[in-house]
Design a protein that fits this description.
With about 425 residues, the chain is α+β, with helices and mostly antiparallel strands. It is built from 13 helices and 17 strands. Helix 2 runs parallel beside helix 3, helix 2 crosses helix 6 and helix 8 packs antiparallel against helix 12.
Length: about 425
């Protein structure tokens, strides 16, 4: 049974876009375009909105190189974007593909490529065409053991560090796929049906089949919850309350740990439970160390994780900002500087630098960045003409819904 086309779809989409995006701006709004029905509907709605609001749209299509037909799909997406009045850029996931975890790897690659292209174009927001059906499918998959995160209307890019300062907006989360396709049919528009959507080898396809005929619930805003928000403790550490919610704790751990994937599932729930019962302990999760003693709970980078991950020396290119360990952005004016972990080099610091770094908790001192000039043996905390910017606080601000609009992102860069 086909759904009745919804004449109010455009008005609802415009309302959601107006609530998050600025108008009369030179920077484009980026849009992830696969060529499927959901993304083509979003493309048409977004370009109509942009024309009426003085904006431009940059559509980004990723060819994962996983299907013999992908070249044709990319060409279709390019034609659809240009016909709708959007700029278009094709991206490609090249190289060897993993034998296991292919779906997750493809998703990570897609987000990374889109984040790089969006930031290069000056965009601060990327539109994605997730629907109410996607929420229901993800909920079912999590109930069956998947570690998929919850889909939110407004959330940071999951790519890190490529996605720093970049937000994702999903203005169609309250819509059904059938409504979007009926709306497209009414416009005489075409779209691609990816055969993988019906392939039972994939968890998403199995969930989609299991939910045929079900009516998804209206998505609610996902709030941080009890226990409030983490607070910064210096440049790169945080403090949390004992009754902190799982989502806020996960955000603190991934941001302080500098990684890309927040912790989920049993380990996160167990850690939250230990905090709530008042237990004193030290534990490591997501590359971060959490130390709970009395009322004080501190989250810091675990220095031992840098050794296990083999964080190598990073040469700084003059005038180019580089992100080290996902926590610090560094820019050098002159050649010859490299950044390394303090681990194994603490005794080589000057007396003044060693006195400063000793103010940090012992377990995290080795995770601090130090600078070496022209391959020298004596590291320093600060180098001449080298600017260091901590990323943890800004990343936490985005992860915990402290920005609600594109203007917040733009003002943060001025």
């Amino acid at each position: 049974m086909r759904l009745t086309p919804d004449n109010d779809l455009t008005a609802r989409a415009f309302t959601r876009l107006d609530a998050r995006l600025t108008t009369e701006a030179e920077r484009p709004v980026a849009l992830a375009l696969s060529g499927g029905g959901d993304s083509v509907a979003l493309l048409r709605l977004a370009t109509d909105w942009a024309r009426s609001r003085g904006r431009s749209v940059l559509a980004l299509t990723v060819d994962h190189r996983l299907n013999a037909e992908s070249g044709g799909w990319t060409a279709f997406a390019a034609q659809a974007a240009r016909a709708a009045g959007a700029d278009w850029r094709g991206l490609s996931w090249d190289g060897d593909k993993p034998k296991t975890g292919l779906t997750a790897a493809a998703r990570a690659a897609r987000h990374g490529l889109i984040a790089d292209a969006a930031r290069e174009a000056g965009a601060r927001v990327v539109l994605f065409a997730h629907t109410a059906d996607d929420i229901a499918e993800a909920d079912l998959m999590r109930a069956q053991g998947s570690t998929l995160g919850r889909v939110r209307e407004w959330s940071p890019s999951p790519a890190w560090p490529q996605g720093q300062g970049l937000m994702l907006l999903r203005p169609l989360l309250g819509e059904r796929r059938g409504v979007l396709r009926d709306w497209l049919s009414g416009q005489g528009a075409d779209w691609i049906e990816d055969p993988a959507n019906a392939d039972p080898r994939f968890g998403r396809s199995r969930a989609r089949q299991a939910l045929v005929g079900a009516v998804p619930e209206t998505p609610d805003a996902v709030r941080v919850g009890a226990g409030g928000r983490p607070t910064m403790d210096g440049e790169a550490m945080a403090r949390v309350d004992r009754d902190i919610g799982a989502r806020a704790l996960a955000a603190a751990l991934v941001c302080v740990g500098g990684g890309a994937t927040p912790p989920r599932g049993a380990r996160l729930q167990a850690l939250t439970a230990r905090l709530k019962v008042g237990e004193d302990f030290a534990a490591t999760l997501c590359g971060a160390r959490i130390e709970a003693a009395g009322d004080g709970v501190r989250v810091m980078r675990e220095a031992g994780e840098l050794g296990r991950r083999g964080i190598a020396s990073m040469v700084l290119t003059p005038g180019v900002e580089a992100v080290w360990d996902g926590r610090f952005a560094l820019r050098a004016e002159h050649p010859g500087w490299s950044v390394v972990a303090a681990r194994g080099r603490l005794a080589s610091l000057s007396d003044a630098d060693r006195a400063w770094i000793n103010r940090l908790p012992a377990a995290t001192r080795g995770a601090w960045p130090v600078l070496v000039r022209d391959g020298g043996l004596a590291p320093v905390l600060a180098g001449e003409g080298v600017e260091r910017r901590a990323l943890v606080a800004e990343r936490l601000r985005l992860a915990l819904d402290e920005t609600t609009h594109e203007d917040d992102l733009i003002s943060a860069t001025r």
